[in-house]
């Protein structure tokens, strides 16, 4: 029996502009399990990014509740949410969003030192993680503008992981990368998942989605499908891809 | 870019030199005799004459000697002061006469120490020149080191880099120093290397993705083709006579058409009668509070918390329904009304409960009928259409209505579909 | 045509920016116009007033018994004199009355208001007709501005221990003898009151007033010198009998000095603010242009020429600055009454703002040209851009940056390190802020020091003017008994020390100059000699800096001094400074004067009290030695009343400067912080996403400005503390001051600086509160 990390009830998100209301998320009841690599799929405009940001406490839902463990994060104010995020969530963005006025290492530490008071320990962990994702010591000292996309995104993942988050949220992490860089980033995510890291990832790319072991398909703000896959292994990709494509064609992808 | 900095440094050195020179020149060189001090000596000596106590001259810093009218030494501040007039004249010393009551009583010799001043000036000049040259030498040395570090060494590195590229080894990056004045220059070399490597990589990628596309397209086309095939097969199996098949098809289509036309006709008539046009939209359940408040003209409705969710409704039609149900409760039960909502499956269930006598059990199924009025409706105004229309409206919002008796009253249930 | 369209589009885009830019430019042109108007009107203010009021250029008063026909004829026949008038007046050589919060002791001349006169006619500003004729008095306007009198108030003049009460029937304006810092004040009595007082006082009080107007008023000093050459002042006459003279030049000098000083400070401050505003404008303009780089790219791609694009940008700022300049100049007219008030307080004269179209145009043009130039230079950089580069949004060039304040290695809190990093990005902007902070802090410190020294602890200022800050002055009845009186007072209880301090008129190397005589200069409070020393012996003399320049003599030289026909040579031992008498003064020892006036002893005894109030001492002296003393004056009270006009004026200046300083700090910080919030929205969004709270980010942003504010304030404060005296010296050098020694109170300056920093912190925190509206959500939508 798997533990539930995150639970939403009747989660709704409405954007209103100029008196016009647009319901992006509608009455979502979602449970995310510990250790899962959950992939949220959907075409653009289906509300998948909105869902991700609502789940991660970046944005407040319009209606409904979100429980993280025992705490109800949908009730927190902005500052409490920020503290919740730094303690429990890690983020990887499509546009990577590293702070470009500081080195890679400092980017990681800017997150890490929010929690830890121990500079040495945090720096050591940061360096270890950076090495794990395949960034050499030379790249730590570089500025984001000097990195390739893949390197930058891997640094972004390290930043997200530095605080040992309960869940890693990734919003189209490969969206801005070429396919080689995508693979390197996805390999890192898979590796992290295999060591027990829960991941929630949004994508509209099938190849990327294959890495997950649970696929949620979102259309018009509603979960249309929920499929489980076996754990990802290299080499079994053809079969897995077929399975996924069948699911998606059922969903009229 | 960097030459600007160099020019600035040169200008700064030049300016500093000029400033230094001006400052040196500005230092006053005073070889004049301090007349005021001499006057003070004379006045003090005159006022104390003929006593020459050392304490009287404590405030005077200049060395001097006092001679009487015969040229004999009476007093000197320290030994070695020129005590003869001749000596004093030879060394530029100042000689002043002392008078008292108009009588000449002696002479004072005040030593003029201009030699020391000249010596000081020489010393200062030598120091200045020394410091200036030392600074210049330091600067030149520093510049040479800087030049070597920032210009020559990077060029050396560029050489080995070029060798690597030439041999086809594109993975060795060009090390770039942060303070390198040729930063952009060396970076473009490195960019060139990266571009070369990237070009090689993308050529490989393009070949691979072409193969992938062909594979996935062939798989996708399989599925729809299969279902089309299946229908055709089914039709082929059941068809015996070609004419029969065509006639059956026509008949089926016409019957279907008739059914649609009748349904349309019925709905059109009903809409005309009650103007029931329902436009469903997704709304937050929180607006229900407001709607009950609007219907509650006796202020006897207690609305319990409504679970937040998104439901399908037509706001104005639902208001009409709620108005109807609440007014019924007021009209027939004449009690308080409790509204209780909860989410059941895919529906938001709104229980509107009064505490009256309820409806006869036999009448319950008929309540939603057209023009039906219950036994307790006598003496009350009404058409018997209210609940029928409410039911119709709710059903058009993909919802459902229901009512039942409780031991302590009567309940109307409105079920609204959750948006999905 | 198409350019106009572009301008319109540009302006419509950033309304908030445009509004703040207009505010800044308006502020600059406002201050510029105020400064220019003050300078231009100050230079000729006195001359205009003298002409307007047809006041005399030279006045001389003497007792009626001393007056001979030839005295008047001297003026009538003097070359260049255009008009002369001789009239009889009443004179009170030492009268006491209330002025402001203290008693004022001064010489009074009372004129008959009903007499017609061509020179210095009675010109009333305010008037009350209901006052009965037999008690009506007309006072100078300064009695209203700083003396606290109003129409219908009664004024009591104590003269020779008898009170004379009158009712104020009006205030008049006069450039001559209208303020209490010339030693003599002119008042008018109505005909009936004049007759009554004249009868009461008897013949001793009758005086003669000779007034003369000249073709060239700058020669007014000369005529008095020449007069003294013909009619030398005998020393007995100079001290024992009433004799007063004044010329318009020294009048102007005394009154104009403070006015000029304050005007100069205001102008200097205006210049500082204008420069600050220009810096900010430059920053703003280049930001605006950089922000529209993409637009420029689009326009270039569409085929607009560089000329069209540049002229649209420049034209936009031209229009803006024209509009803002006009607004600023219009607003400046609100400031002028304020300045007129200060001026009236100082001079007792009304200042009327004249329409100065030329000056207004100059202000507007200056601002317009500066802004346009800035815009032009910034646009020139855009010219070189290729449309493609512009479309990609960048004037950015690749640069290797150093990883300042490494989070791994540097010590300090996380927010502080972040702040440190962002300081390093904006070095140019930081330099600008620092410069502005230095300027405004300096101005504040300067004005505070001025206020402290002129309005609160006046000693340094009084010494600068050249007055002696003793507590009480006692005038002996005759020279024969002055020595005895001094010894007697020395023996009294509560007397710390006494010193003789007198003035006589002398000719020094042919120049008519006041000489201060004391038996022991070391005992005086006011050590005016800044180089060398006061004279100690009978053949020594100290001369003021102005005299030294006039006769080209320095320390160690000898000068010839003559008075009353005798002549003696003295050795110069020191150089002094003072503002009074255009800075011209010499200092002689009492024994030295005896070479010229053999019987000289001195009359005026300065008394320094210790543990005794002035009033108590005055009663004691009058009771014990009343027979020997002809006059006992409360010096403290006199100084207080005389300097009250300066206090109010300086307080007003300080107020203005401080208010503007605060406004500048608030404006600049708001602008800078808001710009940073806009520009770094993405960074803050990222940090919020990773879990930084609003307050952490607010502090981060604020701390990134605090160090530069701190540095600016510290440098400004230090400059203020170190350079205030130097700058004052330069400002006052034309009036005979060579070395200002105002006390600079470090705790007070420190407090001011701390207050400024706290203000800066509060303002930037307030401005940074908008951080609240930055959400990580913004990252998705962008």
From TrEMBL, chain A:
Domain named ABC transporter is located at 6-245
Matching Pfam families = ABC_tran
Amino-acid biosynthesis as UniProt keyword: no
By its UniProt entry, which SMART domains does this protein fall under?
Answer: AAA (SM00382)
Key words of the record:
ATP-binding, Nucleotide-binding, Transport
Recall the GO molecular function terms of this protein's record: ATP binding; ATP hydrolysis activity
- SUPFAM superfamilies of this UniProt entry? P-loop containing nucleoside triphosphate hydrolases
The family classification in the record reads: Belongs to the ABC transporter superfamily.
Q: What is this protein called?
A: Putative ABC transport system ATP-binding protein
From TrEMBL, chain B:
Q: Which InterPro entries match?
A: HAMP_dom, HATPase_C_sf, HATPase_dom, His_kinase_dom, HisK_dim/P_dom, HisK_dim/P_sf, HssS/ArlS-like, Sig_transdc_His_kin-like_C
Residue spans crossing the bilayer: 6-24, 125-146
Q: Which residues form the HAMP domain?
A: 149-201
Superkingdom of the source species: Bacteria
- Indicate where this protein is primarily found: membrane
Indicate where this protein resides in the cell: Cell membrane
Cellular component per GO, a single term: plasma membrane
In Swiss-Prot or TrEMBL terms, this protein is called: histidine kinase
Highest classification ranks of the organism: Bacteria, Bacillati, Bacillota, Bacilli, Bacillales
TrEMBL record, chain C:
The record, for InterPro entries, names: ABC3_permease_C, Membrane_comp_ABC_pdt
| Lineage, broadest ranks | Bacteria, Bacillati, Bacillota, Bacilli, Bacillales
Main location class: membrane
Species this protein is from: Paenibacillus cellulosilyticus
Keywords per UniProt: Cell membrane, Membrane, Transmembrane, Transmembrane helix
List the protein's name: Putative ABC transport system permease protein
State which residue ranges cross the membrane.
21-46, 261-281, 317-336, 356-377, 431-451, 649-673, 708-732, 744-763
- Residue ranges annotated for the ABC3 transporter permease C-terminal domain, each copy included: 268-387, 656-773
One Pfam family here: FtsX
- Where does it live in the cell? Cell membrane
Cellular component per GO?
A: plasma membrane
- Indicate how the chain sits in the lipid bilayer: Multi-pass membrane protein
């Amino acid at each position: 029996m798997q533990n539930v990390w995150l639970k939403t009830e009747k989660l709704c998100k409405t954007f209103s502009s100029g008196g016009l209301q647009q319901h992006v998320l509608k009455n979502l009841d979602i449970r995310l399990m510990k250790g899962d690599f959950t992939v949220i799929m959907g075409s653009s405009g289906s509300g998948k990014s909105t869902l991700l940001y609502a789940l991660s406490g970046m944005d407040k839902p319009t209606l409904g509740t979100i429980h993280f463990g025992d705490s109800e994060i949908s009730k927190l104010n902005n500052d409490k949410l920020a503290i919740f995020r730094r303690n429990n969530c890690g983020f990887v963005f499509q546009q990577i969003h590293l702070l470009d006025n500081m080195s890679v290492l400092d980017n990681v530490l800017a997150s890490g030192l929010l929690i830890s008071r121990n500079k040495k320990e945090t720096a050591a962990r940061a360096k270890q993680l950076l090495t794990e994702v395949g960034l050499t010591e030379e790249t730590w000292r570089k500025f984001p503008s000097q990195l390739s996309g893949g390197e930058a995104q891997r640094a972004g993942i390290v930043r997200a992981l530095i605080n040992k988050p309960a869940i890693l949220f990734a919003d189209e992490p490969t969206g801005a990368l070429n396919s080689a860089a995508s693979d390197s980033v996805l390999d890192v995510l898979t590796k992290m998942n295999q060591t027990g890291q829960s991941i929630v990832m949004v994508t509209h790319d099938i190849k990327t989605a294959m890495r997950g072991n649970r696929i949620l398909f979102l259309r018009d703000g509603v979960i249309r499908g929920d499929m489980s896959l076996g754990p990802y292994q290299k080499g079994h990709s053809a079969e897995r891809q077929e399975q996924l494509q069948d699911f998606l064609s059922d969903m009229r992808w | 870019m960097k030459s600007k900095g160099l020019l600035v440094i040169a200008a700064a050195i030049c300016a500093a030199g000029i400033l230094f020179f001006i400052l040196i020149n500005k230092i006053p060189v005073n070889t004049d005799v301090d007349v005021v001090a001499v006057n003070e000596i004379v006045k003090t000596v005159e006022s104390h004459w003929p006593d020459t106590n050392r304490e009287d001259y404590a405030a005077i810093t200049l060395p001097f000697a006092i001679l009487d009218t015969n040229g004999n030494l009476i007093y000197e501040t320290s030994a070695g002061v020129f005590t003869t007039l001749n000596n004093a004249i030879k060394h530029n010393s100042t000689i002043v006469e002392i008078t008292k009551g108009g009588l000449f009583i002696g002479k004072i010799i005040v030593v003029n120490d201009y030699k020391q001043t000249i010596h000081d000036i020489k010393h200062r000049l030598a120091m200045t020149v020394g410091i200036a040259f030392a600074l210049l030498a330091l600067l030149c040395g520093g510049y040479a080191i800087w030049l070597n570090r920032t210009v020559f060494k990077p060029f050396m590195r560029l050489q080995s880099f070029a060798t690597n590229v030439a041999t086809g080894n594109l993975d060795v990056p060009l090390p770039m120093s942060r303070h390198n004045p040729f930063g952009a220059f060396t970076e473009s070399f490195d960019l060139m290397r990266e571009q070369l490597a990237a070009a090689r990589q993308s050529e490989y990628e393009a070949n691979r993705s072409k193969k992938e596309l062909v594979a996935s397209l062939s798989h996708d086309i399989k599925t729809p083709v299969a279902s089309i095939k299946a229908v055709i097969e089914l039709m082929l199996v059941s068809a015996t006579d070609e004419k029969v098949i065509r006639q059956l098809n026509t008949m089926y289509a016409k019957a279907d058409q008739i059914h649609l036309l009748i349904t349309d006709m019925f709905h059109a008539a009903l809409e005309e009668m009650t103007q029931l046009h329902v436009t469903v939209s997704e709304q937050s359940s929180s607006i229900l509070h407001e709607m009950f408040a609007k219907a509650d003209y006796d202020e006897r409705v207690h609305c319990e918390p409504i679970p937040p969710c998104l439901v399908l409704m037509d706001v104005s039609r639902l208001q009409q329904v709620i108005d109807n149900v609440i007014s019924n409760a007021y009209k027939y039960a004449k009690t308080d009304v409790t509204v209780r909502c909860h989410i059941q499956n895919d529906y938001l269930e709104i229980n509107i409960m009064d505490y009256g006598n309820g409806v006869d059990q036999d009448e319950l199924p008929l309540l939603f009928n057209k023009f039906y009025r219950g036994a307790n409706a006598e003496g009350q105004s009404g058409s018997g259409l209210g609940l029928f229309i409410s039911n119709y409206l709710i059903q058009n919002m993909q919802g459902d209505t229901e009512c039942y008796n409780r031991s302590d009253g009567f309940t109307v249930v409105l079920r609204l579909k959750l948006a999905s | 045509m198409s350019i106009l369209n572009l301008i319109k589009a540009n302006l419509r885009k950033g309304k908030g920016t445009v509004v703040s830019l207009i505010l800044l430019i308006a502020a600059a042109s406002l201050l510029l116009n105020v400064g220019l108007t003050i300078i231009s009107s100050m230079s000729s203010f006195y001359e205009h007033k003298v002409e307007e009021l047809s006041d005399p250029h030279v006045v001389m008063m003497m007792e009626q018994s001393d007056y001979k026909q030839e005295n008047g004829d001297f003026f009538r026949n003097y070359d260049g004199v255009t008009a002369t008038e001789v009239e009889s007046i009443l004179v009170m050589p030492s009268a006491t009355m209330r002025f402001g919060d203290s008693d004022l002791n001064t010489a009074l001349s009372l004129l008959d208001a009903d007499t017609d006169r061509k020179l210095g006619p009675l010109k009333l500003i305010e008037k009350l007709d209901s006052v009965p004729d037999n008690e009506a008095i007309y006072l100078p306007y300064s009695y209203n501005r700083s003396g606290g009198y109003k129409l219908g108030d009664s004024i009591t003049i104590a003269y020779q221990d008898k009170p004379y009460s009158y009712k104020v029937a009006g205030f008049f304006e006069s450039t001559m003898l209208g303020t209490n810092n010339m030693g003599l004040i002119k008042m008018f009595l109505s005909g009936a009151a004049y007759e009554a007082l004249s009868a009461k006082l008897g013949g001793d009080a009758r005086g003669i007033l000779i007034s003369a107007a000249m073709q060239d008023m700058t020669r007014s000093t000369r005529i008095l010198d020449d007069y003294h050459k013909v009619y030398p002042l005998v020393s007995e006459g100079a001290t024992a009998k009433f004799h007063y003279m004044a010329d318009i030049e020294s009048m102007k000098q005394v009154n104009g000095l403070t006015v000029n000083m304050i005007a100069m400070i205001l102008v200097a401050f205006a210049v500082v603010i204008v420069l600050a505003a220009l810096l900010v404008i430059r920053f703003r303009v280049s930001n605006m242009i950089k922000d529209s780089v993409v637009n420029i790219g689009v326009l270039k791609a569409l085929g607009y020429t560089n000329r069209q694009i540049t002229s649209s940008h420049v034209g936009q700022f031209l229009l803006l600055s024209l509009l803002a300049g006009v607004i600023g100049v219009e607003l400046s007219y609100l400031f002028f009454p304020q300045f007129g008030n200060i001026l009236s307080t100082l001079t007792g004269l009304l200042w009327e703002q004249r329409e100065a179209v030329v000056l207004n145009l100059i202000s507007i043009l200056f601002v317009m040209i500066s802004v346009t130039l800035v815009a032009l230079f910034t646009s020139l950089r855009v010219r070189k851009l290729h449309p493609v580069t512009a479309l990609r949004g960048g004037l950015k060039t690749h640069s290797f940056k150093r990883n300042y304040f490494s989070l791994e290695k540097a010590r300090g809190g996380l927010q502080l390190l972040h702040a440190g990093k962002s300081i390093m990005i904006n070095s140019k902007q930081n330099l600008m802020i620092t410069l502005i902070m230095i300027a405004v802090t300096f101005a504040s410190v300067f004005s505070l020091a001025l206020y402290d020294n002129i309005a609160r602890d006046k000693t340094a200022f009084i010494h600068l003017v050249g007055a002696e800050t003793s507590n009480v002055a006692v005038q002996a009845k005759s020279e024969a008994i002055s020595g005895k009186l001094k010894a007697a007072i020395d023996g009294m209880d509560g007397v710390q020390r006494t010193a003789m301090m007198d003035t006589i008129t002398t000719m020094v190397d042919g120049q008519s100059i006041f000489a201060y005589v004391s038996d022991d200069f070391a005992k005086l409070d006011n050590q005016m000699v800044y180089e060398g020393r006061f004279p100690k012996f009978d053949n020594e003399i100290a001369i003021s800096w102005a005299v030294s320049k006039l006769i080209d003599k320095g320390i160690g030289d000898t000068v010839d001094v003559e008075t009353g026909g005798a002549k003696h040579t003295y050795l110069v031992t020191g150089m002094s400074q003072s503002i009074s008498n255009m800075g011209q003064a010499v200092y002689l020892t009492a024994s030295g004067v005896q070479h010229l006036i053999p019987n000289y002893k001195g009359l005026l005894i300065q008394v320094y009290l210790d543990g005794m109030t002035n009033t108590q001492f005055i009663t004691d002296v009058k009771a014990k030695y009343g027979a020997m003393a002809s006059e006992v004056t409360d010096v403290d009270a006199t100084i207080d009343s005389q300097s009250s006009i300066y206090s109010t004026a300086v307080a007003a200046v300080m107020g203005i400067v401080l208010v503007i300083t605060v406004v500048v700090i608030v404006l600049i910080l708001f602008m800078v912080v808001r710009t940073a919030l806009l520009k770094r929205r993405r960074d803050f969004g990222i940090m919020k996403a990773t879990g930084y709270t609003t307050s952490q980010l607010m502090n981060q942003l604020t701390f990134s400005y605090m160090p530069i504010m701190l540095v600016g304030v510290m440098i400004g404060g230090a400059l203020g503390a170190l350079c205030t005296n130097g700058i004052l010296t330069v400002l006052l050098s034309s009036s005979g001051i060579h070395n200002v020694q105002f006390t600079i109170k470090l705790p007070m300056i420190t407090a001011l600086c701390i207050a400024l920093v706290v203000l800066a912190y509060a303002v930037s925190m307030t401005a940074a509160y908008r951080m609240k509206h930055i959400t990580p959500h913004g990252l998705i939508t962008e």
